[in-house]
Write a structure and sequence with these properties.
The chain is mainly β. Helices cover about 10% and strands about 45% of the residues. Among the domains are: about 100 residues, Immunoglobulins (Immunoglobulin-like), CATH 2.60.40; about 150 residues, 7 Propeller (Methylamine Dehydrogenase, Chain H), CATH 2.130.10.
Length: about 475
């Protein structure tokens, strides 16, 4: 008897709720979609802005093409403005206008960087009505990309560093800020002391060095030790503008053209009495007024303002570009190499990009040298098949180049699928990668591009296993998942 009464009461309550919902719908139909006498503002009723960029989740990269859509059906003839605010709604900037009946608006993201609000504004019919605001996040353009441990570090123009991958080589490693064995499966902002307002970043196997806009330099690593998980400021370094991190040491450039360094001292710069340690920073007068430096395993390259290149370090595999020397601690010009605009050293190989768009190689390159019946390139040699190149990146076992029309080329070890070849065959010549046209190129063992059509793509070695347990891919994937 009790159960029957309970069921009856539940049916009555459901009937009452249904009647109330019908009444509300009837009233709404008279004021929102029913009456032709209602004004444009009354019919607008603050529609929600729906982001139709697939899976974007409100995260956009500057330069991306983003589509917006809304669900209003009775705004024929109304003019809508798409507005964005970067200061919490205090001021709004119109990014475009469209007719309401189209229900869609596509635009190229320009900023402002960081968190922003997005809304629609209708000014037709003598009234001004705005939609609900939607929170979005605009990611600044990429400035630099480096790698350390099993992670990629991405420096953006707003000074934020994002990280993807794993830091630490032991499950016992613990960070006060990041927890035990930090791991990032999606690019995330790195929040540790000293890694904000960053102007330059460089990494190697077990450490990352950054310079900040205030002129200080910070180091994080080595990651195989507990103390390495604590970032710390490099003492006695001021007005720093760039840093280059090598396996055996770190070089930092200052605003007044000086270069200072510290480390194990493989190049003999600091004197025999100097041991490893960040406290023993020394000035290197031989590298004053250089525009760029790139460090390999046992050698380094320094680019001067007149387009000549200085080399220093070991020369066991021809990485200095001068077969007459076995090695040198004093940087000296590479004979016959001039008009250089970029250098890149990695492992025991060296690359240079000249102003005419050609790429020159010297040192150990076991994948290109078989085509020339040589073990190493003892002097700078032009790479066949590369012309009109605007950027080049050396990865030691593999390298990539970007042509002025957006085409990407690669050569070297293909075990990770860098050549975008499903057969994973390593070929002794340059191969054009099957990827979209790019406007910028980065390489850390993983190739990463900013596509001309928007978005950031990467392929080759993966910082983490994907959902199928793979460590590499030949198909370009979106770096910021969509």
């Amino acid at each position: 008897m009790v159960n029957g009464e309970f069921r009856t009461l539940r049916r009555l309550r459901l009937l009452a709720l249904t009647c109330l919902a019908s009444l509300v719908c009837c009233i709404a139909s008279q004021t929102v979609v029913g009456g032709g006498e209602a004004s444009i503002g009354e019919r607008f009723q603050r529609p929600a802005v729906k982001l139709t960029d697939p899976g974007a989740r409100g995260k956009w990269l500057v330069g991306d093409r983003v589509s917006l859509a809304w669900r209003q059906r009775r705004l024929a003839g109304a003019e809508l403005e798409v507005q964005i605010s970067g200061d919490g709604g205090s001021s709004w900037r119109t990014v475009g206008t469209t007719r309401a009946e189209r229900g869609r608006f596509t635009w190229t993201v320009e900023g402002p960087w960081g968190a922003a609000l997005l809304r629609l504004r209708c000014t037709s019919g003598g009234s001004c009505v705005v939609s609900r605001s939607r929170v979005v996040h605009v990611i600044a353009p990429i400035r630099q990309v480096t790698a350390a441990g099993s992670a990629m570090f991405i420096l953006h123009e707003d000074g934020q560093v994002r990280v993807l991958g794993t830091i630490g080589t032991s499950s016992s490693v613990r960070s006060h800020y990041l927890g035990r064995r930090p791991r990032w499966r999606r690019p995330a902002v790195l929040r540790i002391p000293g890694f904000d307002h960053v102007s330059s970043i460089s990494g190697t196997y077990q450490a990352v060095v950054v310079t900040r806009t205030d002129g200080s330099a910070w180091i994080w690593g080595p990651f195989n030790a507990f103390e390495g998980m604590r970032s710390r400021q490099i003492p006695n370094v001021h007005d720093a503008v760039w840093a280059r991190c090598g396996i055996w040491g770190v070089l930092v450039g200052t605003r007044d053209g000086r270069t200072v360094g510290f480390g194990v001292n493989p190049w003999g710069f600091y004197g025999e009495d100097v041991q490893e340690g960040v406290e023993q920073v020394r000035d290197i007068p031989e590298l004053r007024n250089v525009t760029d430096i790139s460090l390999g395993f046992e050698h380094g390259l320094a680019l001067q303002r007149d387009g000549t290149v200085l080399s220093f370090g070991g020369n066991s595999l021809g990485q200095l570009g001068d077969p007459a020397v076995e090695g040198r601690t004093t940087p000296a010009p590479i004979p016959g190499l001039r008009d250089v605009v970029a250098v890149s050293a990695a492992g025991s190989s060296s690359l240079a990009l000249r102003s005419d768009g050609t790429v020159w190689i010297w040192g150990d390159d076991q994948f290109l040298s078989p085509a020339r019946d040589a073990d190493v390139f003892w002097v700078p040699t032009r790479i066949d098949g590369l012309e009109r190149v605007v950027a080049v990146e050396n990865g030691g076992l593999a390298s990539v180049a970007l042509r002025d029309d957006g085409a990407v080329f690669a050569w070297g070890l293909n075990a990770s699928g860098l050549l975008t070849d499903d057969e994973r065959l390593t070929r002794p010549y340059v191969v054009q990668c099957r990827v979209p046209a790019a406007k910028r190129l980065f390489f850390t063992g993983t190739a990463l591009i900013e596509a001309v059509d928007g978005g950031v793509l990467f392929w080759g070695r993966l910082p983490l296993r994907d959902a199928y347990g793979r460590w590499q891919t030949t198909t370009p994937l979106p770096f910021y998942p969509r």
